[in-house]
């Protein structure tokens, strides 16, 4: 597959969407632990996203997982203050 080098830059930018893993004790649980696991950048043609995982979850018996993406509304000044939660497996 050929890569259009004219569109590839080293410019760093915030992700358009944040990727979360939601861990629940059962499928019917109303709440779960939200863990930020990566980001997604929209393609210029609007046809999808490039996803970058900061970590890959492993399957734990008895836990139920859902992935979701949310619009990145984090202020640039808060970017360094985010911390990753330890999952309660």
CA distance, first residue to last residue? 40 Å
What percentage of residues falls in helices of 4 or more residues?
under 10%
Characterize the main sheet.
4 strands, antiparallel
Please compute the radius of gyration using only Cα atoms: 16 Å
Strand content: 25-35%
Could you spell the SSE succession in H and E letters? EEEE
Q: Work out the helix count.
A: 0
What general form does the structure show? elongated
The average pLDDT score comes to 77
Strand order of the largest sheet: 3-2-1-4
pLDDT under 50 segments (min length 5)?
1-6, 79-84
Describe the structure.
- By secondary structure, the protein is mostly beta strands.
- It has no helices and 4 strands.
- It has strands spanning 17-24, 33-42, 49-53, 64-71.
- A hairpin with an 8-residue loop joins β1 and β2.
- It is elongated, with a radius of gyration of 16 Å.
How would you describe this structure in keywords?
4-stranded antiparallel sheet; 0% helix; mainly beta; disordered N terminus; 89 residues
Which SSEs are present, and which pair or pack?
Blueprint: E1 17-24, E2 33-42, E3 49-53, E4 64-71
Antiparallel strand pairs: 1-2, 1-4, 2-3
Short description:
This protein has strands at 17-24, 33-42, 49-53, 64-71.
